[in-house]
Design brief:
The protein contains nine helices and eleven strands. It is α/β, with parallel strands linked by helices. The chain has a nine-stranded mixed beta sheet with strand order 3-2-1-4-5-8-9-10-11, with helices on both faces. Strands 6-7 form a two-stranded antiparallel ribbon. Helix 5 packs across helix 6. The structure holds 3-hydroxy-5-(hydroxymethyl)-2-methylisonicotinaldehyde. The site of 3-hydroxy-5-(hydroxymethyl)-2-methylisonicotinaldehyde has 14 residues, from strand 1 and helix 7.
């Protein structure tokens, strides 16, 4: 079987372990080739830093796609995350249409918000653009805030009731037409993880909760999930692998000198990810 290829479409945050600097090593560790289309270049991510630089690459994306198409480059999966502008939602959809095969899987992480708030730099029109990209996906990976923004459901803080999660995930699936992996699902102080709504069926993948917040864990999670999926795991198995990998990355970080904005030590958890995928 030939090596699988993912096209990862995210920003490069030069410091702060998220988006492409996380997707590349994790997908490589899953033995997947990771080609990239950067959406923007920032000196750091936008969560907790001020004064970051930001270069929007909106005008470069279709040129990269057109060259690849001419070269006959295609991919087994497209994995999109943080976009540099609202306009990029349409451009990324066109890119995927230009490069996909009938079998390509499209994974969209609607990376735009957390903790009940849009990330710095996005205005209230942005979720509608992101919704249109989600509608082109096979699988989407929103956190609770992002699912609320996609559906218009009121954001609530954890812990959640099963009724709230069920309604949120079903509405998100209805409005996007995609299978949904909802992250940040927490019913009590001991467990956290993801809910999965796949072909009309609801399942959970939970692990022990560590009561800390680190930046970039959504990208660690979605990258590992995509890597496991391309290693022929079922969606539920891939989500459980990603939940465990994210928890382990947080645990490794706590053994050191953790700074929330600097991201998690996923690198030290990679040997275990490698092992579960063997
Ligand atoms: O991890 C999501 C993310 C990606 N890229 C940038 C971000 C964020 C979250 O804040 O700011 C630039």
């Amino acid at each position: 079987m030939s090596q699988k290829r993912v096209v990862a479409i995210h920003d490069i945050s030069c410091f702060g372990k998220c988006s492409l600097t996380v997707a590349l090593p994790i997908l490589s560790a899953c033995s997947i080739e990771c080609s990239v289309i950067p959406t923007a270049v920032l000196s750091t991510h936008t969560g907790g830093f001020t004064g970051f630089t930001f270069r929007d690459l909106t005008d470069d994306i279709l040129g990269i796609s057109a060259h690849w198409r001419k070269e006959g480059i295609t991919a087994d999966a497209f994995y999109t995350g943080y976009l540099g502008s609202e306009k990029q939602a349409e451009i990324v959809k066109r890119t995927i249409e230009m490069l996909r095969t009938g079998e390509s899987i499209i994974v969209v992480d609607p990376a735009m918000a957390d903790g009940g708030r849009l990330y710095t730099g996005f205005d209230s029109n942005f979720p509608l653009a992101m919704l249109s990209l989600c509608q082109a996906a096979d699988i989407i990976v929103p956190n609770i805030t992002e699912a609320c923004l996609l559906t218009g459901i009121e954001y609530k803080e954890a812990p959640y009731t099963e009724e709230y999660i069920e309604n949120l995930i079903k509405r998100t699936a209805d409005i996007t037409g995609a299978d949904v992996v909802l992250t940040g699902v927490c019913f009590d102080e001991n467990r956290i993880g993801a809910a999965i709504y796949e072909k009309g069926e609801l399942k959970y993948a939970l692990t022990r909760r560590i009561p800390v917040f680190f930046h970039g864990t959504g990208d660690v999670f979605a990258s590992a999930m995509t890597g496991a999926l391309l290693n022929d795991r079922s969606l539920q198995a891939a989500v459980q692998i990603a939940v465990n990998f994210t928890r382990e990355s947080i645990e490794k970080t706590l053994e050191e000198n953790p700074e929330r904005e600097y991201g998690v030590n996923f690198e030290s958890a990679i040997p275990d990810l490698f092992e579960v995928l063997e």
